[in-house]
Amino acid sequence: MDKIITTGKFKDKPPFRDSSSAVVPAKVMCHNCSKLKIFLGALAFSFFAKGFSGSYMKSMSSQIERRFEISSSIFGIIDGSFELGNLMVMVLVSYLGPRVHRPKVIAVGCLIMSLGAFLSVMPQFLMGRYNYERIAVTVDNSSSSVSACSPAPSVGHSVSDATETPSTMKNSGCEKTSNSYLWLFVLMGNLLRGIGEAPVMPLGVSYIDDFSKEENSAFYIGLVRSSGMFGPTLGFLLGSFCASLWVDIGVVDIDAININPKDTRWVGAWWLGLLICGAVNFIASLPFFFLPYSLTKEGEDENPKKISHLPVQGDHCKTDPPAQPQLKFSEAVKDFLPTLKKLFGNPVFLVYVFLTILQYNSLVGLITYETKFMEQQFNVSVAKAIFLVGVILLPITILGMFLGGYLIKKFKLHVTGMAKFACISFIVAYLLNLLYFMCNCEVLQLAGLTVPYSGFKQLSSPKNSFMASCNADCSCKMDQWDPVCGDNGITYMTACFAGCKSSTGMGKNMVFHNCSCVEGHEHGHGNASAVLGQCQRESCTKAFPYFLALQTACAFILALGGTPTYMIMFRSVSPDLKSFAVGIETLGGRILGGLPAPIYFGALIDETCLKWGTKSCGGSGSCRIYDTKAFRNVYLGLIAGLRAGCCVLYMVLCVLIMRRFKRDDKEITDIKNAEETINKESVTVNKKEVLPGAKTSEESEETYM
């Protein structure tokens, strides 16, 4: 039998009455409040999940390039497919936001993200084992010494790496040419992730703003977004761990691999983290299936008219969900263009969209190639670069976003105050950003390319002339890359180009001796040697801590103004357009920022490549070494140029907001003054009409006024 619960811990709470004078217990209001908190927690975890998989995917940029032997521009297309997926559904999802069951749509989106992550893993199980470039050397009769420089290299046999067997070396992977296009699986998986992520931001944020207090909205959104930033942090940490593992882990003998994670041919277990990302996105979808279409507005529990009476069956409190509006597709299409015109007729929102586009361009380009920049510029491994981004930069960003939302709540900043705060913080960060150019790093001294064989002086017009008199009799192949570092501090493309005649040791500990090109004029005719790997650049290593500290300061200041900037959009559009505005803003950032940025960033970075790898079946693979100076100028120059445009738009935005909202504030102030005047007049009239015994009450009322 249905009954009203008025016992237990709610026995002291007075019951509410709805419009029909039916009693509604306080438990109903607590139940609605708890559901809002559950939604906040679920949305924060979904932000975590999408950030987790997104940051992991970006951290694997170098690994995916090397595994599929593709250029940075091709990876830019793969990365941009995520934004394309957003583009396909973002406008529809955001426009239909208030008209659909938002929690369930978010749940379906998380499931699609999970499917996309699992699809991206498929190439690992379709491709053969990874075979990295390795120079062919000859073995003498004693089998204790190998020679890289041989007049007749065909007489000897190739030393295979741990992933090859004699039966598989004949065709060198040319049997399955379709492997060259398996990166399309990764592209399609990324596309699905973009489609699945589209409803999370606009529907989730608008849901919070609709059912929370206005003064709490900014704090809740800042809390959810900052909580979601733990996803990118752990995503980069997972990326660092997987990048340090060999791609075919568990299948090959790791001790037999002759290269280490610092080598540009190293490929980590990129696929392993995607399996984890898919599982996390699947878990994130589950809570949303059990959340209602709408909730009672937070803080309206004192108003009985906002509460609908519902019987309670047993010990469970149930509320009838509000009737969902029947949406006709023809009406939605008919209202779309007028709604869009109304939104873009708002100059504040229009400038905000342009600002978002430029910010997306700089941010996406920075994040996508940050680890590659650190690797090439400061001579650190990809795994270490990913780790540092995850444990230093992203936590600082989380702190800045959280603090930005807190400051809005603490000081109750109006939209004009938010605009000023965001503008000042961005300009300060931009000025610090210009100091990046002071972190100089020398170009790798690569014999025949950046320095001549005979000395250390860099060529004014370097040409790909790797051959010299010291290695003319070695019959070296130009399409090989297996670098060695000579005693003279110069890197050679292979031990063959260094003119090495013998060696000692095996695997990673192999040392080449009698290298004719290493001897040079300074070394006389001694037993010049070379070791596997590129030469270390000490000046680059010393400059890295300063670069990291500067980048940390910039990230914090930018994040500090991030939440105030985001709230400007909500305060500058009408309430019924908030969900649509979020979708349009995100769409503009995706299509004109997130989609093209990794492609043109990657294409310009490719122009700074000094030596391309070679695929097993011919053709260019991924880049092995870059001109670090040109790389720095292109990468940092693009970011600085885009952020300069952001500074201008921030100032324009501040001017527009101050003009618009100061006028509104003046009107509100005039209304308040008029109301106060009316109230004082009414009090004066009441004083004349009070009875003689009401003197104390009269005086207290006058004091309050």
UniProtKB/TrEMBL annotation:
Transmembrane segment boundaries: 36-53, 74-93, 105-126, 229-249, 269-291, 349-369, 381-407, 419-438, 544-568, 634-658
Keywords, sorted A to Z: Cell membrane, Disulfide bond, Ion transport, Membrane, Transmembrane, Transmembrane helix, Transport
One annotated GO biological process: monoatomic ion transport
Recorded GO CC terms: basolateral plasma membrane; extracellular space
PROSITE patterns according to UniProt: KAZAL_2 (PS51465), MFS (PS50850)
PANTHER family reported for this sequence: ORGANIC ANION TRANSPORTER, SOLUTE CARRIER ORGANIC ANION TRANSPORTER FAMILY MEMBER
Protein name: Solute carrier organic anion transporter family member
Protein species of origin: Phasianus colchicus (Common pheasant)
Lineage: Eukaryota, Metazoa, Chordata, Craniata, Vertebrata
